[in-house]
Amino acid sequence: MATHSSRLVAQILELFAFGFFVLIYKSTLAANSYPLLLCPDSSSAILCTEVCKPFGQISYSIDREELEISKREKDNIEKSHFKDCKVQSQNEWLCNKVRYDENRRVFNGYEVVQMANGVLSKQSFVFEKSQDIWKEVFQCSKVSFLDKKN
């Protein structure tokens, strides 16, 4: 009987520890998430000016020459990966990706993402197959580094 109750206590402690880990993990993710703004043109996105309007949330991680971006718009989460980025520092980098269908030999668009002066800006020009149109999008986010707000 004592082993049954000690096993039950161990399981409860494991569940508590797991719940605590999930809570810490989610709060860490939220701390590294920034407001994503939709802009009318590339110059306003690069400067992240007042004309840009709230659109969602964005988080990113850059490691060596690879970038991963997670965008949340309403309940939709979209992840993008970029390789061969030009990185000067964690706070200054440039990544781009050409969308090309090798089988059909068709250009489907491009994406450019950069971090400069605490502003993450993203520009894309992509063919939307579902709507049969070319879509140009400009987005930005003001990012803070080491307790500095921009």
Number of helices: 2
Shape: extended
Overall pLDDT confidence: 83
CATH class of the largest domain: Mainly Beta
- H-E string: HEHEEEEEEEE
Major beta sheet summary? 9 strands, antiparallel
Secondary-structure arrangement, i.e. CATH architecture of the largest domain: Beta Barrel
Q: What fraction of residues sit in β-strands?
A: over 45%
What's the helix and strand layout?
Elements: H1 2-31, E1 34-39, H2 42-47, E2 53-63, E3 66-73, E4 76-82, E5 86-89, E6 92-101, E7 106-116, E8 119-128, E9 133-142
Antiparallel strand pairs: 1-2, 1-9, 2-3, 3-4, 5-6, 6-7, 7-8, 8-9
Describe it for me?
By secondary structure, the chain is an alpha+beta fold. The protein folds into 2 domains: 1-31; 34-142, Lipocalin, CATH 2.40.128. Helices cover 24% and strands 51% of the residues. It is built from 2 helices and 9 strands; from the N terminus they run αβαββββββββ. It has helices spanning 2-31, 42-47, and strands at residues 34-39, 53-63, 66-73, 76-82, 86-89, 92-101, 106-116, 119-128, 133-142. It has a 9-stranded antiparallel sheet. The termini are far apart.
Give the tags.
150 residues, alpha+beta, Lipocalin, 2 domains, nine-stranded antiparallel β-sheet, 9 strands, 51% strand, extended
What's a concise summary of this model?
This protein is of the alpha+beta class.
